[in-house]
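Design job #97: recover the sequence.
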């Protein structure tokens, strides 16, 4: 459980109703227009850091998009950030069951979250409108198309926080960019520029920030006119197994003294700024 704006005419929905629920989303803006469902992370003041509530709402939004009439789903972020990863304040809210119970609950939520991407029956597109950190980067290996603005960066600082990779990235990243470059990111905290991420095959294309939204929207609308198709899903069972293994490893990390100390050090450093 670690750690883009769409343009166009009026949308069919601004805040959509979660699947099976009556309330609107609190942390997302979900809209459907031109046969495209857009899921926008909507905590710009917190750089779209992901809370447990947001995890659950994204799962619900993916379930909704799987059933609607759209051709594919687009993820993006409100404001200047795509997503700053997990909201680390999650780790300061110890439940009544203690750290072990918090880790168990977090693990099951993470397992469901990543599985929602694996199981999504339509193409997934990421419109990375700014910096991306943590799990917002690792799940990109499960997407079909990733467009980024030139000012986007991709960072997975897990070992700095006493944690380990998730989102099936321990499997997808070596396949995409090779084992040594994947290790540089996932184990040694290497931050990639958008252009470097494109060179390594992590993302599809980089656009100038000034024309990013207009160029991406033009392309997506053109793609939405194509017949529905899906090129993913051949690795589903493998991805399930990888997800389970990563979640098990993270559960161990979350209950470790090393992880606790690393997160506390993060907050102490932040308080001095």
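Job complete. Output follows.
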């Amino acid at each position: 459980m670690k750690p883009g704006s769409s343009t166009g005419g009026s949308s069919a929905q601004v805040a959509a109703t979660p699947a099976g629920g009556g309330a609107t989303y609190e942390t997302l803006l979900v809209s459907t227009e031109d046969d495209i469902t857009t899921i926008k992370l909507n905590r710009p003041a917190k750089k779209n850091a992901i809370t447990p509530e947001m995890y659950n709402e994204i799962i619900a939004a993916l379930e909704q998009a799987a059933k609607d009439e759209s051709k594919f789903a687009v993820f993006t972020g409100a404001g200047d950030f795509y997503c700053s990863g997990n909201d680390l304040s999650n780790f300061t809210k110890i439940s009544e069951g203690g750290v072990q119970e918090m880790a168990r609950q977090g693990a099951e939520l993470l397992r469901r979250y990543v599985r929602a991407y694996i199981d999504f029956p339509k193409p997934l597109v990421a419109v990375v409108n700014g910096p991306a950190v943590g799990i917002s980067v690792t799940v990109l290996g499960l997407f079909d198309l990733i467009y980024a603005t030139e000012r986007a960066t991709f960072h997975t600082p897990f070992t700095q926080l006493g944690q380990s990779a998730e989102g099936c990235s321990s499997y997808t990243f070596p396949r995409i960019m090779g084992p040594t470059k994947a290790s540089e990111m996932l184990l040694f905290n290497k931050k990639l520029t958008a252009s470097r991420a494109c060179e390594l095959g992590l993302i599809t294309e980089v656009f100038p920030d000034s024309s990013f939204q207009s160029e991406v929207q033009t392309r997506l609308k053109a793609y939405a006119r194509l017949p529905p198709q899906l090129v993913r899903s051949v690795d589903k069972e493998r991805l399930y197994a990888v997800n389970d293994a990563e979640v098990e490893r993270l559960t161990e990390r979350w209950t470790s003294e090393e992880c606790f100390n690393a997160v506390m050090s993060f907050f102490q450093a932040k308080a001095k700024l």
